């Protein structure tokens, strides 16, 4: 059986940083995100007795070994076990954005794969089950199953059955926007997975992160529901800075920022002083996402494009949930 799905990437407003179970991808803390319209992955999966091994085609090129291949096969094994099938699969996947640009390709990638692979395997999973399955591929992927504004519940159970994402507000809830500002398309040196493990192990301030992150989640959730832009933006920005403080103080230190990152941070803060209301957030990489309301998009985009080192600014609205599609890649 063949099935295809399309899923959007997402950006965390309060971050996921650190695991309590690396096999089941269970987080130490919950997180809140916005699903990003227009930054997506499309994936087609077909199980067949004709395939002797899983075949992975990424952006038109076959990947037959290495970390990415192994992780995909491990994920397909989870799907096969759930469906009680043994057939190998052909998987074709395409991103419509630069993969190495720190735009969370694993989030849209595993959300699309969870939906396409489960359908192709004959499973009919509900949103909760899909989110849990996507989480097994990559933590942040569980948030891309839903559209709009999303919360990934940390959960308490050891088996992960209560650690999944739910929608806080739909995509048309308000005219909140995210300007994805690309300063580098180089592959990052330290992947999130390794970076967070190192932080949990060696950062003396990680305790402080865990002690304060739930207050940030509660404030951002409330801010979203009340459409309070200043509350969401200011808490999200501070939460990002706290996460980066823990990255910078691991051993050895992980510093994802480059000079262009710093330039944007200072510019956004100065513009805010002037009354142009915007806030920044940054993931495990140098690119900056700037939060604003629709009315300020054009002015901010123009100003960001004028800064040193800025290559591209992509305007993102809150995006859709993951969906199946009849447009197959093969
Ligand atoms: C987030 N990040 O909440 C945080 C903020 C990066 C910084 O989720 O090991 O690719 O696959 O669960 O989901 C990136 O980590 O890590 C991430 P795994 P993932 O968006």
Could you explain how this protein is built, in words?
The longest helix is centred in the middle third of the chain and has 21 residues. Helices cover about 35% and strands about 25% of the residues. Strands 1, 4, 5, 6, 7, 8, 9 and 14 form an 8-stranded mixed β-sheet that branches. Strands 11-12-10-13 form a 4-stranded antiparallel β-sheet. It starts with a strand and ends in a 5-residue tail after the last strand. Helix 2 crosses helix 3 and helix 5 runs antiparallel to helix 6. Strand 2 and strand 3 form a beta hairpin. It has 2 domains: about 170 residues, Ribosomal Protein S5, domain 2, CATH 3.30.230; about 140 residues, Alpha-Beta Plaits (2-Layer Sandwich), CATH 3.30.70. The chain has about 325 residues and is an alpha+beta fold. The chain is globular. The mean pLDDT is about 95. It binds ligand 2P0. The site of ligand 2P0 has 14 residues, from helix 4.
> What's the CATH C level of the largest domain?
Alpha Beta
Q: What is the assembly state of the chains in this entry?
A: single chain
- Most strands sheet: 8 strands, mixed
Q: SSE order in H/E notation?
A: EEEEEEHEHHEEEHHHHEEHEE
Helix content: 25-40%
* Strand runs, count: 14
Heterogens: ligand 2P0
Low-confidence stretches: none
- Give me the secondary-structure category: alpha+beta
What proportion strand? Answer: 25-35%
Overall geometric form = globular
Span of the ends, CA to CA? 13 Å
Rg, Cα atoms, Å? 19 Å
**Distinct helical segment count:** 8
The CATH topology of the largest domain is given as Ribosomal Protein S5, domain 2
* pLDDT averaged residue by residue: 96
Number of domains: 2
